[in-house]
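REQUEST FORM: STRUCTURE PREDICTION
Request ID: SP-0412
Submitted by: Lab K.M.
Chain count: 1
Length (residues): 184
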Amino acid sequence: MIWARIPVLAAAALVLAGPAIAQIGRGDAPVEITSKQGEYLQNEGRGVYTGDVVATQGDSRIATDKLTVICTTAAPAAGEAAACEAMQQLLAEGRVYYTAPDVKIRGDRAQYDYPSDTITITGDVILSRGNEGVVRGSQVVYKISEGRTVITAGSNRVTSIFTPAKRAPKPVAPTPPAPALRPN
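STATUS: Completed
RESULT:
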C-alpha cells in the first residue's frame, strides 16, 4: 500500500476525528476510531485514544480501553510541518477484543504491526473460531493475510476445547422380509 504524506494538521484531524489511513485486517477500507478522548502528539508521531475505544475497518474491529496509533514521520523541510508518512502499529491496552469474520480473540494487550499484517495479543487470551472451538493461552500471534495462528501458554499449557460435529447415523440396511410360509 502506498502511503501519502499527510501534513500534521490533517494527520491530527484524521487521528482524532475519524477514518485513518491504516488497516486492522484484510483490505484497504478506511479505519474509523471512536473514543471518549483523543490526543495527537505530532512530535512523537502518535495518536492516543482513551475510554471505550473502538477501531473498525471493514468487518475487522478492535475494542479496548486505550489505543495508541504510531506512524513514521518525515523530517520536515524548512517552513513545513512534520508529516505522518505511514501507520506502523496499533497498541491496544486494557481489555482487548479483536473480531474479524473468521476469528474472535480476547486478551489484555494487543499490538498490530502493519508491515507484517500481524496482531499479537497477550495476557489471559481466549480465541474462538465460530463453532470450531475455543483455545486458551497467554499469547496469540495471528498473521492475518496468511490465516495462520500460533498460540503459546508460557509455563502453562495451551488448552483447546472442540465440540465434534454431529454425525448423521449410518443408514440401516432394510431387513429382508421373512420367507412366506407355504402350506403343505
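NOTES: Confidence is low (pLDDT under 50) at residues 1-23.
Reviewed by: T.R.
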